[in-house]
């Protein structure tokens, strides 16, 4: 509240205002000024959160890319390992196929030799046995030439087209092989006895002599 005072020079009364009143008036004047926005403390916090979220997103994207690269690398290694195993298995199968062809070729040769043994005794059978040998040789060639997946189909197709010949030749081949082996064994035994100075034919057991003689053999 203002207090009037006398000016000694002019004699005019002056009014003075207390300091508290001046401060209150200044605050009111400041509050009433238009166009001056108040400071917003929420904006820096929002910007910081946005920056942190962007950093997290970049980190997650980098981790995802690294995981994808690791998975792709593992898949490529697995593919290479499977390819190598497949090639190795194919190589082993080819080796087995070649060995099988060699066996069949050997059987064909044995059947031909058996046919030679039968030529004088049973020429009709010998001709069929030679047919079996020819089929065995053809099968050996097919084994070498064809892929493994085709071999079963080749045998089935031949058996379907010529079942009688297929079964008959198989039986004759077995018979001829057994006959050839028996004949070969007899020849080897005869050759061994001849080399030892014995007879070239099987010896029969001699009857025992009478007691007291040189030919007597105890039973």
TrEMBL record:
<feature type="compositionally biased region" description="Basic and acidic residues">
    <location>
        <begin position="23"/>
        <end position="55"/>
    </location>
</feature>
<feature type="compositionally biased region" description="Polar residues">
    <location>
        <begin position="1"/>
        <end position="19"/>
    </location>
</feature>
<feature type="region of interest" description="Disordered">
    <location>
        <begin position="1"/>
        <end position="69"/>
    </location>
</feature>
<feature type="region of interest" description="Disordered">
    <location>
        <begin position="191"/>
        <end position="219"/>
    </location>
</feature>
<feature type="compositionally biased region" description="Low complexity">
    <location>
        <begin position="60"/>
        <end position="69"/>
    </location>
</feature>
<feature type="compositionally biased region" description="Low complexity">
    <location>
        <begin position="191"/>
        <end position="200"/>
    </location>
</feature>
<protein>
    <recommendedName>
        <fullName>Nutrient deprivation-induced protein</fullName>
    </recommendedName>
</protein>
């Amino acid at each position: 509240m203002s207090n009037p005072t006398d000016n000694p020079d002019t004699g005019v009364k002056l009014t003075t205002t207390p300091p508290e009143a001046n401060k209150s008036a200044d605050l009111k004047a400041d509050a009433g000024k238009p166009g001056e926005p108040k400071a917003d403390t929420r904006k820096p916090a929002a910007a910081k959160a946005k920056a942190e979220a962007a950093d997290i997103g970049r980190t997650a994207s980098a981790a995802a890319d690294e995981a994808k690269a690791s998975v792709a690398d593992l898949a490529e290694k697995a593919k290479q390992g499977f390819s190598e195993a497949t090639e190795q298995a194919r190589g082993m199968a080819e080796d087995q196929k070649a060995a099988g062809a060699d066996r069949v070729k050997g059987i064909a040769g044995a059947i031909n030799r058996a046919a030679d043994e039968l030529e004088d005794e049973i020429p009709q059978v010998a001709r069929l046995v030679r047919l079996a040998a020819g089929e065995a040789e053809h099968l050996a060639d097919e084994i070498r030439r064809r892929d493994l997946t085709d071999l079963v189909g080749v045998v089935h197709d031949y058996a379907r087209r010529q079942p009688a010949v297929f079964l008959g030749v198989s039986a004759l081949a077995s018979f001829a092989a057994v006959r050839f082996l028996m004949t070969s064994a007899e020849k080897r035994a005869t050759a061994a006895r001849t080399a030892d100075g014995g007879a070239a034919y099987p010896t029969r057991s001699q009857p025992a002599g009478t007691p007291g003689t040189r030919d007597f053999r105890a039973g």
